[in-house]
Amino acid sequence: MEKINTLKMKGVTRRFGNTTALHDFHLEMSGGQFVTLLGPSGCGKSTALNCLAGLLDLSDGEILLNDRPIQDVAAEKRGFGMVFQNYALFPHLSVERNVGYGLELRRVPKAEREKRVRSALELVHLAEFGKRYPGQLSGGQQQRLAIARTVVLEPALLLLDEPLSNLDANLRNEMRIELKRIHSELNLTTVYVTHDQSEAMSLSDIVVVMRNGHIEQIGSPQEIYNQPKSPFVAHFMGYINRLPATILGKENGYWLIETANGTQLLGSSTNEETNWQPGQKVVALIRPDETIAEPQAETNRLIGHVQLVEYVGRAYESLVLLTGQGGTQLLAHSGRRQNSGDQIEISIDPDRLLLFSADETENI
Ligand code: ATP
């Protein structure tokens, strides 16, 4: 199997009739990386994955494996392995035979086959389950079997399409750790599809945030989380509090903004080229867990009244109606339970109060 040094998708476009599912998609990865395609339903994640796998033809563009075009190479000749959301296991074959089936087709001699099946089952911690049938395994075990069945073929690239979406919350967390372990043990170049931002954050070297068949942003999990370049990415990463404001100018390296009731706050732009003039309408996007009720800090404060309180584990999340801000409500976190009707102050770190032009934030 050809080892991956580099894998590139260049200008890949895929149309279905009048729908462009993937538009001018560019992605470069190097051997051993874990790349995640992240975005809401219908944004083109599976289309991108299927184009890579060779299950879909491209309408335009090319795919280069070690700088050699492979878009016309048949799926089974690419040497890639895919794990599907529904696992696609053979119910009438034992666990061992499920794993060994691909090796049988490739006429791998029995002794070597048995050795590779054993080590694949050990890798996914299913060594004791070889004689069972898929129907006798839990959801998480079936998932691991699907992975074993794919990695036993030693693919150059592992493609995973929402592999954890059929599992309950606890199992998802466990399997996430398992996936991370398997990836680091095999150092296997992986492309993973999910709409779950926390999965993308915890697993990936590179996250590709997609929207309507386009790439919105590519970066490390830290970059995507801390420096979302567009309101769409920010909102998708949990910056769901919105506060309209007007630019007054710059102060100490931050933007100085004025909210509806005249309160002045400092905020940041994730785009270094931003050159707003005083009077520019902006919207601040902030994560609830960075909107702090009962703040210690003296700066960047807003006043409001608590309307609803929810316990979210580790903290209370309050819905706060800001005073004199035209009905704007924010979700804020605090360690202590607030009561409905309480007046509270909230504070936001200027580095975590992200500003975008108001017109950019209309369609998120
Ligand atoms: P999900 O998370 O729901 O699986 P996705 O991000 O993987 O979504 P895709 O399945 O790639 O999205 O679909 C992207 C767009 O292309 C959607 O608008 C979808 O309806 C359309 N599409 C995908 N496959 C086909 C097809 N075979 N025929 C027609 N349209 C398709």
Automatic annotation (TrEMBL):
GO terms for molecular function: ABC-type transporter activity; ATP binding; ATP hydrolysis activity. Keywords: ATP-binding, Nucleotide-binding, Transport. Residues 7-237 form the ABC transporter domain. PROSITE patterns: ABC_TRANSPORTER_1, ABC_TRANSPORTER_2. GO terms for cellular component: ATP-binding cassette (ABC) transporter complex. Gene3D superfamilies: 2.40.50.100, Nucleic acid-binding proteins (2.40.50.140), P-loop containing nucleotide triphosphate hydrolases (3.40.50.300). This is ABC transporter ATP-binding protein. It comes from Reticulibacter mediterranei.
